[in-house]
Design brief:
This protein is an alpha/beta fold. Helices cover 31% and strands 17% of the residues. The chain folds into 2 domains: 8-64, NAD(P)-binding Rossmann-like Domain (Rossmann fold); 82-120, no CATH class. It has 4 helices and 5 strands; from the N terminus they run βαβαβαβαβ. The chain has a 3-stranded parallel beta sheet with strand order 1-2-3, with helices on one face. It has a two-stranded parallel ribbon with strand order 4-5.
Length: 120
């Protein structure tokens, strides 16, 4: 389908087997695999060393490369200055007693971000 592999492969699930598949799917010579998912089971990652010698590479990206100490205050200020419009991503708001409804909306793919009010 890609005539030799993909230039960039992204793994977002967090399974070592999918990380290995993504690496194997990258193009020989310059393919790059970016691992975004977090492997929670402690499964070791096994990659073909010969493939990396032939130009394939793999890197990780935790939180998209965000640096919490410097970037979070900057993002917070942009939000307060109305330069970052996060409110547009809120699709639902529910009270704490309706938390199961929030989970249902998420599982059904109907909710992007839901605020759960604790004090109402």
């Amino acid at each position: 389908m890609t005539d030799g592999g993909a230039d960039y492969c992204f793994e977002c699930i967090g399974l070592a087997s999918v990380m290995e598949d993504a690496f194997s799917s990258s193009r020989e010579g310059w393919g790059k695999t970016v691992i975004l998912g977090v492997e929670m089971h402690g499964t070791p990652l096994s990659l073909n060393c010969y493939a990396s010698l032939r130009g394939r590479s793999v890197c990780g990206s935790l939180f998209g490369g965000l640096k919490p100490k410097t970037d979070i205050p900057l993002l917070a200020q942009k939000y307060l200055d109305k330069q970052l419009h996060l409110d547009d991503f809120i699709t639902h708001q529910v009270n704490l007693q309706d938390i199961n409804k929030a989970l249902e909306l998420l599982l059904e793919g109907k909710s992007l971000r839901c605020i759960i009010w604790m004090d109402q």
